[in-house]
Design brief:
alpha+beta; nine-stranded mixed sheet; 500 residues; Jelly Rolls; 3 domains; globular; 37% helix; disordered N terminus
């Protein structure tokens, strides 16, 4: 404890008194943020022991709050006691304003999780309970691509069979699963992983984590590790914690998550390849949100892709991965890890937009009078989408959305090939256009509250939804035909020619 150690040191020197005063001043984070960041960054030139180490660590987190994320920040907490790390008041978690990745060396020790990490050996995993069985993933290939069976059009992809899940799921005894991880059981593997809620794997291990020794009063399911977990929104409920158990060589292919994630490596070694969130017009593209491979990159990450940053974690390290950041994860050794998740403002607001506020998603529909034939629908939706993207300064976003629905992807859904949009792209009546533009402004103001790095992702999903609503007015016979119709409309009417 820093205060206690100073108390018993006797008379303080002038430099010690000055250092204490500086740390006290830095605690007022919210009021004097800019001044705090400058002071913390100045501390980076000091040696890394005692109070200076805490200032260096705080400087790294401050930089991750203010920088443009051109680098992955790294801090070390090996020589920092929790009570010393006061400049950012990390009592309950990482601030939601942290938007850049941070490698945190010694994260588990700092969080007083050493005993927990030492006890969670593979032998402990083997006798996890009270569950006796586990469902896990097995593949002949090292790269496992997440497959979501509950996306809007997942059933169509499964029915068509042109793209299939590249791993199988197996349910067996937990000890057999651990044997497979250790390459003892030849029936499974060689690439085996578990990645699902900790409590689903073992209620007793989840209880151990939540009640593990900690000097802070918290009801966080992450127990002591919650000190470095991303802050939960108010009144959110219990934190989601994912347990990852992986054999050496297993790779989770490049993807992004909608929640902020503190990845705590308890044993083994891992490599992460990280990239900024995708831009409105990007060289890379994910599968659309309707696809079972949603949130995954459609193409593998090239080994020499300089847009990715590579970091390696050792046992006891943590990595903060902000929402939206692309990451590819490889277990260099068999590994045990926890992901401590927290949804951010954007995720919560977009959920409300599609549920409680769903009538506001297309605000002009209730104000327009008369009937909606296909020609009028084309006119008003063209005005709406073009106006919205112009207001958000993302005119090229529709091109990215259409790249997600390539000819190959359309075939996977069983959609008919691209066709000419038969209802034209005519100008809307002046009275309709005025109402529609007002609606576009209302929606734009909502999205402008989102962080710039996450805005393209949520606007893309929004466009998929509202254009699906437009196509539903056409009363087409199948879901495949309905989706193909709005894609044809977007191709014909919503692509803005590039600027000269």
């Amino acid at each position: 404890m820093l205060a206690v150690s100073w108390h018993f040191m006797g008379r303080e020197s002038k430099s010690e008194i000055a250092l204490r005063a500086r740390i006290a001043a830095l605690e007022n984070v919210l009021v004097h943020r800019e001044q705090r960041i400058a002071q913390l960054q100045e501390a980076c030139s000091r040696d890394s022991s005692g109070p200076d180490a805490s200032l260096k660590a705080a400087a790294g987190i401050a930089a991750a709050m203010s920088a443009d994320c051109n680098v992955v920040h790294e801090i070390s907490l090996h020589s920092v006691a929790p009570a010393e790390f006061r400049p950012l008041n990390l009592t309950y978690g990482l601030p939601s304003t942290v938007r850049c990745p941070i490698v945190i060396r010694g994260a588990v020790t700092f969080c007083q999780g050493s005993k927990l990490a030492q006890s969670w050996t593979w032998n402990r995993v083997r006798r996890a309970g009270p569950q006796r069985q586990v469902t896990f993933d097995v593949s002949a290939e090292p790269g496992l691509t997440y497959w979501n069976n509950v996306t809007m059009l997942a059933e169509l992809v499964k029915l068509r069979g042109l793209r299939t899940q590249n791993f199988k799921t197996v349910t067996t005894r937990i000890d057999r699963f651990v044997d497979a991880i250790e390459s003892v059981d030849d029936e499974y593997g060689p690439f085996v992983r578990y990645g699902a809620p900790l409590r689903k794997f073992s209620a007793s291990m989840a209880d151990e984590l939540k009640t593990a020794h900690t000097s802070i009063s918290t009801h966080d399911a992450a127990g002591p590790l919650g000190r470095l977990a991303p802050l939960l929104p108010d009144n959110f409920g219990e934190r989601e914690i994912t347990l990852f158990l992986a054999a050496a060589g297993v790779t989770s292919t490049a993807h992004y998550d909608n929640s902020a994630n503190m990845h705590m490596l308890l044993s083994g070694r891992k490599r992460f390849r990280l990239r900024k969130p995708l831009l409105a017009l990007d060289t890379l593209v994910t599968w659309p949100d309707t696809h079972p491979n949603a949130r995954q990159l459609q193409t593998p990450v090239a080994p020499d892709d300089v847009t990715f940053t590579t970091v390696e974690l050792e046992a006891g390290d943590g990595l903060f991965v902000p929402a939206g950041w692309i990451h590819e994860v490889t277990a260099l050794e068999r590994s045990i890890a926890l992901s401590l998740l927290a949804p951010n403002f954007e995720y919560g607001d977009f959920e409300r937009f599609g549920t409680q506020d769903r009538l506001q998603m297309i605000p002009f529909l209730a104000r327009l009078r008369g009937t909606f034939d296909p020609v009028r629908l084309s006119k008003v939706f063209k005005v709406f989408v073009v106006s919205l993207l112009a207001r958000l300064e993302m005119p090229e976003l529709m091109r990215t959305l259409l790249r997600m629905y390539s000819a190959e992807t359309r075939a996977e859904f069983g959609m008919p090939p691209a066709a000419t949009w038969p209802f034209g792209c005519h100008a809307a009546d002046a009275s309709d256009a005025a109402i529609v533009r007002e609606g576009a402004e209302v929606v734009a103001l909502r999205f402008l509250k989102y962080h710039a790095t996450l805005r393209p992702r949520y606007v893309t999903v929004y466009l998929e939804n509202i254009l699906g609503v437009m196509a539903s007015f056409l009363d087409l016979p199948t879901k495949e035909a309905t989706y193909a119709a709005w894609l044809d409309f977007a191709t014909a009417c919503l692509i803005i020619p590039p600027s000269p």
